[in-house]
Amino acid sequence: MKLAVIIPASGSSSRFGTRDKLAEDIGGRPLLLRTVEFFTKREEVNEILVTGPEENFADFQDRFGPALSFHGVSIVQGGATRCASVTNALQEVSDDIDRVVIHDAARPALFNNLFDSLLLASKEFLAVAAALPITGTIKRVETAATTIADEDAIADSILGASTQTKLSSHLVLETIDRSNLWEIQTPQIFEPSLLKQGYLQSDLQGCTDDAQVIEKLGEPVHIIEGDSRNIKVTTPPDLKLIRSILGIRGEQERPAHKRF
Length: 260
Hints:
CATH topology of the largest domain: Spore Coat Polysaccharide Biosynthesis Protein SpsA, Chain A
Strand order of the largest sheet: 5-4-1-6-12-7-13
Shape: globular
CATH superfamily of the largest domain: Spore Coat Polysaccharide Biosynthesis Protein SpsA, Chain A
Structural class: alpha/beta
């Protein structure tokens, strides 16, 4: 089976803050490269395409291009949305590819056992994704939030309002039955012509993953149980967790006697 891998890396990552999460150090290499390296070690993978941001594409190439090119990775300019980025990458996939794999750029903790299981399922089904059954209690809440602040008039007058402790609360509307609810992951694997057909649809607004694009076609999508270690780095605290999962020590503070 010949595989093409598409790794969308053109999102804004607004929940991570001002830093570029794909450039964060994970054991001496950028997070993006850690994700890509898994696929470079798989014999089934013939092509790897990484989509860069539509804006600042040249800067993305400067930062990641040399390392990605060393691994034979093609960089494709992405679009304004994830769907647009995947569409651009699909145009570069070779005609003799048997399956297209799509994987989040910020999921570097992918392991062979999960990928092997997905490949096995993809021999039977045309659209397969990894997912985890939801085990916690799920609440639906109001969208609007109430802001709560710890106001201290004296401290504010001296230090300013930024010293306040603030948090947002949401009113619970209902508890949702979690039976048959799963949290989707990547990789997701598709038969190429089906995936291309899905991305020819005119109304893909609101699609947050590629399996949903196939669902809009009315075609079946199957899921297999994923891996709890296969987390997506979304916020800064996730970096510490992903380093722990990968067995990588984080940045160590210099010993006290060597700080000066």
